[in-house]
Amino acid sequence: MNKKILVPVFSLFLIISLFMVGCASDKSDMTPTPYPTPVRKTYAVQRGDIVINVELFGRVTPLALATVNFQLDGHVGDVYVQVNDKVKKGQLLADLEELKTLLAQTVETSDAIKRAQIALQIAQLTLDKYKAESASIFDIQIQEKQIELAQMDLNEVLIKYGIDPSSNALDVLDASANKAKVFAPVDGVIIAGVNPGRTVATSTVAFTIGDGSQSEILASFDPGKSDEQLKNMFEGMPVMVTPNSKPTLQWSGKVRQLPSPYGIGSADDKTIHIVLDQPRSGGELKFGDTVTILVQQANKAGILWLPPAAIREVGGRTFVIVNGTNGPKRIDIEVGLQTADRVEIISGLEEGQAVIGQ
Predict the structure, then answer these.
(1) Domain residue ranges of the chain, discontinuous segments joined by +
(2) Could you tell me which residues are beta bridge partners of residue 61?
(3) Helices (DSSP H) in 91-136: which residue ranges?
(4) pLDDT tens sequence across 263-314
């Protein structure tokens, strides 16, 4: 190889080697940039009060006396009364669209029964005639058998239409048709009622009848939050009522009725019934007035609490993280009442203890 070529190549190799050594020396002297350590907020266990209030809105109505249900599932047909109408006991309130079909079936059944009854009566009258005319014993015996056959035919018709042969057939038919009608069970005022076309079941409250001389408050609630709002309520629970037209006034009252399964009311009833402890005069509160109801579901004073951000739940365990001698550690706790900003600490922590947030 030409010596003139080897010298420059060797020089180039030497320069590159020195450069790499210098770079390695520089890297060894560099200090790595540390990653920032996340700072978690801490919370102190505090002592204070927890109050849980539920605000409801209601309307003053006549005191409910009775509810009315259809005895058949179906669709509401004609409605003969409106809200605030006065009604008398036994008055027809509404019927089902299915009543027309029932009436047609009743006519068909009634005619079949009457035919069988008439045939039996003719057989009986013929026997009476034979006896009056001193007919032969043979003819009388034959006619007695005709009566038996006519009675058997009548029984067969009754059984075919599901009627007890020992009962009054026409009364049974009338009672069947009346299942598609509802009547007022008491004198009173219509508080609420169904509209034509609505689908109803036997469990559906079709009408609510109230006492026109006494009042109560029907408070509405969100069906989607019924468990959240009603689970801590009970019948007889005290409440405070404020008329919306006079917000400076406030009256005490109590929960009279809750819907099932929280109380004795119907599961179909989407209202809470409230009565005042002292009746108000007509000038202060009258039918149709709107009110605001404050229900205090819980009130605990002097309890230990933490904000929700300090509490963790994993795998069915409720716990907090605190700084221990060997670093962070878990402490299982028992919690009680909870609001949007406070959780009651029943056990596991002491007042003033610091807890690491999530």
Answers:
(1) 42-51+300-356, 53-96+185-299, 99-178
(2) 216
(3) 99-132
(4) 988 887 888 999 998 877 656 888 889 999 999 888 889 999 999 999 999 9
**Per DSSP, what are the bridge partners of residue 255?**
274
Reported in sequence order, the residue ranges of 229-356 that DSSP labels E, i.e. its strands, are 238-243, 251-257, 271-276, 290-306, 312-314, 317-324, 327-332, 334-338, 343-347, 354-356
Model-level pTM greater than 0.90? no
Q: Helix, strand or coil for residue 303?
A: strand
Parallel/antiparallel/unpaired status of strands 251-257 and 312-314:
unpaired
**At how many degrees (to 10) do helices 137-160 and 99-132 cross?**
170
Rounded to the nearest 10 degrees, the angle between the axes of helix 169-178 and helix 99-132 is 170
- Count of beta carbons in the 10 Å neighbourhood of residue 217: 26
Q: Determine the Cα–Cα distance for residues 244 and 64; give it in Å rounded to an integer.
A: 22
Residue 248 CA, chain-centre distance (Å), reads 33
CATH topology of domain 53-96+185-299: OB fold (Dihydrolipoamide Acetyltransferase, E2P) (2.40.50)
**Each residue of 46-64: pLDDT tens digit?**
999 998 888 899 999 888 8
